[in-house]
Design a protein that fits this description.
The complex is a heterodimer.
Chain A (H helix, E strand, L loop, with lengths): L1 E2 L10 H13 L9 H20 L7 E4 L2 H16 L5 E5 L4 H12 L3 E5 L9 H7 L4 E5 L13 H11 L4 E5 L16 E5 L10 E5 L25 H14 L3 H19 L5 E4 L8 E6 L4 H10 L2 E2 L13 H7 L2 H5 L1 E5 L6 H19 L1
Parallel strand pairs in A: 1-11, 3-4, 3-5, 5-6, 6-7
Antiparallel strand pairs in A: 2-8, 7-8, 9-10, 10-12
Chain B lengths: L1 E8 L9 H15 L5 E5 L3 E6 L4 H8 L5 E10 L4 H12 L6 E8 L8 H15 L4 E2 L6 E8 L2 E5 L3 E5 L8 E5 L5 H11 L3 E8 L6 H18 L1 E8 L1 H10 L5 H19 L4 E3 L12 H8 L6 E2 L7 H10 L3 H4 L21 H8 L4 H10 L2 E6 L11
Parallel strand pairs in B: 5-6, 5-7, 10-11, 10-13, 11-12, 13-14
Antiparallel strand pairs in B: 1-3, 1-4, 2-3, 4-8, 4-9, 7-8, 12-15
Helix pairs in contact in B: 3-4, 5-6, 7-8, 8-9, 8-13
Classes of the chains: A alpha/beta, B alpha/beta.
Chain lengths: 373, 396
């Protein structure tokens, strides 16, 4: 099997799986219980959280565990909207967000909020002037993903934060960092809220967290008991949390070295594909190397996907969460609907090998040239 | 240019004959907390210089912000090129990304053989900055930004505004004290304030299993760990108080429960303190806060020992105490909801003005010496480091 869809999800690494199993077996107490078993679990919970907090230089109480990035996005965006609706009902998002963000915005629109979409330039970079002009006195939230899931464009969050806070100091800044964490260095201090998910970094599915700066308040979406967190009450899923913590630790080893390696693989593929006039490379100078988006203009992407299936080679069509539609991000950057309809996303990881890429390109050449005739 | 960390001493500068002892202790304390980071320390009577690798600077500055005896932490830049042209360009390079509207240049020349004098250097550098950076002005009285240039033998030192340190005296310069640490809000704050005066502390905690839980003990360990950050490490004495408490409950007039209990705690603490070379007891009592903290109660309790008891919070109100607890990050731990041995067995109406004669009379019903010595004989000691060993290294 050659797996090239790491941005959709990753397999759980052996070390992380070991943690899930160990914790499930050995830490049976509820971290909210008063007895010694509960204390043992509570201590592990605390250490796991502290490890994450230390890696990102944040405070442990700024971490809210969620089932993943979609829940974190809901918690952040709806939570800010509910907490601030008296101050304003205006929210700004980019045109490069994960589909879940747009669905949340549609819901908020239906209950009276106003959503603006900030433009980007031909490289996918947020249009700073447009952002500045769109921020108003009643703008309560700006949500811009750090790395776009389809084309991999990375936004300079520090600059965006400066622009936002200069225009309106009260506007809260959220960023979906799901595609960034574990791939490129992140700084939570650039934002007020950030979402992430473990299954993109060799962790289990069903766990992620929301970073919420202690300086801001949001309204909880879920109500219940348990001392762990007022935004996410209930029994903490300790095996998943410990696994998340470990996955984050492992993902942040040698970040830059791994990025350089993946960049070599990425460039090898690009160089190979450039020989075909009907293949367009949807890569800008701000794209991270782990995500490589292409448009095969003369074939429907599903067709090619199924051909690759036969060889047990797996690539993605834009994001897994929006299959079937056109790629919003490619549309937003290139403004070409055909190009946006024909996208394939090849996503790489530091565990991808040169052999795998060679084999993939060999198959690609054979099958693509056959079908293009 | 090489980055170095410059420390200005706190209150030490008021010491005369023994200033060397204070500075040496500060150096020892810093070396201890930096044991895992490669570093070199030099000092004179005015300042201390710490050399570390550039990548470690932020971490070291963070650590130094928890060390008592430091008035200011400054990141300085050292250069061996001493000619005036390089001074000009170095200063411009260093300040061009800083935001300020007014500034002042202060030059010190410890190398008096340097051809240009301090005033002239101030003028030359000031003028150079004014021509190269727009919208700034010199203000010699209240500048926003201070540019310090120090001309030393064969090297130049540049530094700007620093970060405020914790102040106080270096820990250990004034000997040792024993802190009576409960799980509450007050006692950790009392410990912090005593450490600030240069007293190294050990702590004593009374537990009553099974009436108090492991969680309560764990909470005290966590509090001690926070204090250990300022104290370099803490020896925590844990006394099993169950037998004493149960004996008191059975044999003593209920309104005097708390008074006698506190008297027993004082007796045990004073002996532990003496055995561990601690000269004082420290606790978080605040006048009038609860029944055992009225003046008559304090007198009735205190009279069982001769050792001085320092009560740093005696005259603080609760809100002042809470604000310090929040600042030093003990508040969140202290407010975790576990019973400690002072909150179980509380009589409905504890005596507010206990009578010493009555205390002595009631204590005739129990064997004070035997109970005290048994508790001390069986006590547990835990050495607590500021940084917790990762217990879950194989899991996380």
């Amino acid at each position: 099997m050659i797996y090239l869809d790491y941005s959709a999800t990753t397999p759980v690494s052996y070390e992380v799986l070991d943690t899930v199993s160990k914790v499930s077996k050995e830490f049976v107490g509820n971290a909210n219980s008063l007895h010694a078993l509960g204390l043992k679990s509570a201590n592990l919970l605390e250490s796991a959280t502290k490890q994450i907090a230390d890696i990102f230089s944040i405070n442990p109480n700024e971490i809210v565990y969620t089932s993943g990035a979609t829940e974190a996005n809901n918690m952040a965006i709806i939570g800010v909207a509910m907490a601030n609706h008296r101050k304003g009902k205006h929210i700004i998002v980019s045109k490069l967000e994960h589909p879940s963000v747009y669905v949340i915005c549609d819901y908020l629109k239906s209950i009276g909020f106003e959503i603006s979409y900030v433009n980007n330039d031909e490289n996918g970079l947020i249009d700073f002037d447009d952002l500045k002009n769109k921020i108003r006195e009643d703008t309560i939230l700006v949500s811009i993903c750090m790395v776009n899931s389809e084309v991999g464009v990375r936004q300079p969050l520090k600059i965006i934060r400066q622009i936002i806070k200069k225009e309106n100091i009260a506007t809260i800044f959220h960023s979906d960092m799901t595609q960034a964490i574990g791939k490129v260095p992140v700084n939570f201090h650039d934002v007020d809220l950030a979402s992430m998910s473990a299954h993109k970094i060799f962790g289990p599915k069903g766990i992620g967290f929301l970073y919420k700066s202690s300086m801001i308040k949001i309204t909880p979406l879920i109500y219940g008991s348990g001392k762990s967190n007022e935004l996410k009450p209930g029994t903490p899923p300790l095996p998943l949390i410990a696994a998340l913590s470990k996955a984050i630790r492992l993902a942040n080893n040698d970040l830059e070295k791994r990025e350089r390696f993946v960049n070599l693989l990425n460039e090898k593929i690009v160089k190979f594909l450039e020989q075909y006039p009907n293949i367009k490379i949807n890569k800008t100078k701000y794209s991270i190397p782990q995500i490589l988006n292409i448009s095969i203009m003369n074939i429907m992407p599903e067709t090619f996907l199924h051909i690759l299936d036969k060889y047990e080679i797996y690539v993605g069509t834009n994001t897994a969460c929006s299959s079937g539609n056109i790629s919003n991000s490619v549309m937003a950057i290139y403004n070409d609907s055909k190009r946006a309809k024909h996208t394939i996303r090849i996503s790489l990881s530091y565990v991808t090998t040169t052999d795998e890429i060679n084999k993939f390109l060999e198959v690609f050449k054979e099958e693509y040239e056959k079908i293009s005739l | 240019m090489k980055k170095i960390i410059i420390l200005k001493y706190g209150e030490l500068t008021t010491k005369k004959d023994n200033i060397n002892y204070f500075i040496k202790t500060l150096k020892k304390n810093i070396s201890e907390v930096l044991e895992n980071i490669e570093h070199e320390i030099y000092y004179d009577f005015g300042r201390m210089f710490i050399y570390v690798a550039e990548k470690d600077i932020d971490e070291v500055v963070n650590i130094l912000q928890n060390i008592f005896g430091i008035f200011e932490i400054i990141i300085g830049f050292k250069d061996e090129n001493t000619n005036i042209e390089s001074i000009k360009s170095n200063v411009l390079n260093l300040v061009c990304d800083k935001e300020f509207k007014t500034f002042k240049v202060i030059t010190k020349r410890s190398d008096k053989s340097y051809p240009t004098n301090s005033m002239e250097i101030n003028n030359i550098v000031g003028e150079y900055l004014l021509t190269n950076i727009s919208n700034i002005a010199v203000d010699v009285h209240k500048p926003e930004f201070l540019i310090n240039i120090e001309i030393r033998k064969n090297e130049i030192l540049y530094y700007f505004n620093g970060i405020k340190g914790l102040g106080g005296y270096p820990v250990g310069t004034l000997g040792k004290g024993l802190l009576m640490l409960s799980g509450g809000i007050d006692s950790p704050v009392a410990g912090y304030m005593t450490i600030k005066r240069g007293v190294k502390i050990e702590a004593i905690y009374f537990e009553s299993p099974p009436h108090t839980s492991e969680l309560a003990k764990d909470k005290v360990i966590k509090l001690a760990r926070v204090l250990a950050k300022y104290n370099s490490n803490i020896k925590l004495h844990i006394i099993n108080f169950t037998e004493i408490q149960e004996t008191i409950l059975k044999n003593i007039e209920h309104e005097y429960l708390i008074t006698i209990m506190r008297r027993m705690m004082y007796r045990i603490s004073a002996i532990i303190a003496h055995n561990n070379k601690c000269n004082i007891l420290i606790n978080g009592e605040s006048i009038g806060q609860v029944a055992s903290q009225t003046l008559t109660s304090m007198r009735a309790i205190n009279e069982v020992i001769k050792m001085p008891v320092i009560r740093p919070l005696a005259c603080f109100d609760k809100l002042e105490i809470i604000s310090i607890a929040k600042k030093i990050n003990t508040y969140e731990i202290s407010t975790l909801p576990y019973e400690d041995c002072c909150t179980i067995f509380v009589p409905l109406h504890p005596v507010i003005n206990p009578d010493i004669a009555k205390c002595n009379l009631y204590e005739k019903n129990i064997d004070v010496d035997k109970l005290v010595h048994k508790a001390i004989k069986n006590h547990e000691v835990i050495d607590i480091k500021a940084k917790e060993d990762n217990k879950f290294i194989d899991i996380l």
